[in-house]
Design a protein that fits this description.
Blueprint lengths: L1 H18 L2 H29 L5 H31 L3 H5 L5 H31 L10 H26 L10 H5 L14 H7 L3 H13 L6 H32 L12
Length: 268
């Protein structure tokens, strides 16, 4: 029970930060409003301009919604970690009996809450404003959302490992990660559209299997189970690798004494 309490304590601290800062809460949902509104009108325009039987709302707006969910999961992990860095609270946490596993578990709890609340807000807006029938596909969506969630967690842990290794000044490396991954993840177009060298990278990314599978479902075909299973396997491997890298990096900077000098201005 003590393990669960310490893990929940990390999540509770983030809740208190959000409760005491309306600006933080506003920032969580401002980009949702902008993205869904922008891509909703783009999808509606394409439906009118193309004058075809293709419905761009689930293809484009649905893809934006799911990709935002992934990004919020990843940034939920990294932002919670950076809050501890910015407040110079990171050392205080690990002066307690808190373990690395418990700390990472707390960050994942925070990102889960942020991702799910953001997803509900996006679905509500997309449904009311643009008629996206997100839940029309029922339980078939669950494994796709789970795969995006797991990959978001893996990249989130990878991102905080970069900051832990190179210092708080390297946080600029974290924010663009979803944008860097997007061209390879087949969010808006099939993998076959990419040149060969990009396809090889795409096949190593779980989101490419998610969005290829979702396009198959939207087209009325059966979901590609094999591809989705491969995506899950990759997610588990990436989470294990990222967690191992974080633990190894933490131990390295602790032994070298770098952790003792870890401050908001940088680590050197």
């Amino acid at each position: 029970m003590s393990v669960l309490r310490r893990t929940a304590g990390i999540a509770l601290r983030q809740y208190y930060l959000l409760r005491g800062s309306p600006a933080r809460v506003l920032a969580l949902y401002a980009w949702i409003l902008i993205d869904i509104t922008l891509w909703g009108f783009i999808s509606r325009y394409l439906n009118l301009a193309a004058a075809s039987e293709i419905n761009f709302v689930p293809l484009l707006l649905g893809a934006v919604l799911l990709w935002n969910f992934f990004a919020r999961i990843m940034h939920g992990v990294t932002t919670s970690f950076l809050e501890d860095v910015w407040s110079q609270n990171f050392l205080n946490l690990f002066a307690s009996p808190l373990s690395i596993r418990e700390y990472l578990g707390g960050l994942v709890l925070v990102s889960t809450a942020m991702g799910l609340t953001g997803l509900l807000a996006m679905v509500l807006l997309a449904t009311v404003a643009f008629g996206l029938r997100f839940f029309a596909y029922g339980l078939m969506l669950v494994p796709f959302l789970l795969a995006l969630f797991l990959f978001g967690v893996a990249l989130g842990i990878f991102g905080i490992t970069l900051v832990l290794r190179f210092g708080p000044a390297s946080e600029w490396l974290v924010w663009p990660i979803p944008a860097v991954v997007t061209p390879f993840a087949a969010v808006f177009y099939p993998v076959a559209t990419l040149p060969d060298w990009m396809q090889w990278i795409s096949k190593m990314l779980p989101p490419s299997y998610v969005f290829e599978g979702l396009r198959t479902i939207v087209a009325g075909d059966s979901p590609p189970v094999g591809g989705l299973i491969l995506g899950f396997v990759l997610c588990v491997l990436y989470i294990m690798a990222a967690s191992w890298a974080f633990a190894r990096t933490y131990r390295a900077i602790t032994r070298s004494g770098l952790l003792a000098r870890y401050k908001a201005e940088g680590a050197s």
